[in-house]
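idk why but the lab printer keeps eating my pages so im just putting this in chat instead. protein + coenzyme A:
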Amino acid sequence: MDITTDYKEKTAAITALFLETFTASEGAEAGAVIRDLVAEMLSSVNAKDMYVFSALQEGEMLASILFTRMTYPDDTRTVFILSPVAVATGQQGKGIGQKLITYALGVLRQEGVDVALTYGDIRFYEKVGFALITEAEASPPVPLQYPEGWLGQALSGAQFTPLSGPSRCVAALSDPSHW
Ligand SMILES: CC(C)(COP(=O)(O)OP(=O)(O)OC[C@H]1O[C@@H](n2cnc3c(N)ncnc32)[C@H](O)[C@@H]1OP(=O)(O)O)[C@@H](O)C(=O)NCCC(=O)NCCS
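predcted complex ->
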């Protein structure tokens, strides 16, 4: 398995992966919503505000994950949110998601990112170091529909401590329906 951060040449394969994976897991409508979200993120977010990691095997797209910057103006720390994540339907349950996320978190740590957030199923994300946090500990940009999926981890320092003040996410993620 090769991991690449190049996405400019791989936009079509990455968006197709999200469409197919979420259509299979959550239905055609959800698949199209996530495909459109990822297409907008890839085309609109500045390089300094986004990391994209993809896992490939012999040119086949196995998995892809996106991190985008979260801004907490009252806090000095650098924060990125992991969302969304897809492992190709036929490749799930083989450890690929955990490997790709663990690799990516190591890169973010080296780049000086202090905190990673995500929003999803704790039973999976706890395997790669995330723990449940509250909206008081890290304000989401809009109120959460599923606060039980609000997760975070410190990449620098021993443990996560609350982030101060309100937050902003990148424009592509800001539609309240994604939260
Ligand atoms: C969720 C997903 C990213 C996990 O990636 P993966 O490569 O299949 O997962 P891995 O094989 O690395 O790890 C799976 C482990 O997490 C556990 N797990 C718990 N909840 C899980 C869940 N909702 N989905 C997948 N695995 C889950 C599995 O039991 C397994 O445990 P084990 O390693 O002890 O056997 C992938 O299955 C996927 O893309 N699913 C469809 C889209 C999706 O739900 N994306 C995430 C949105 S938040």
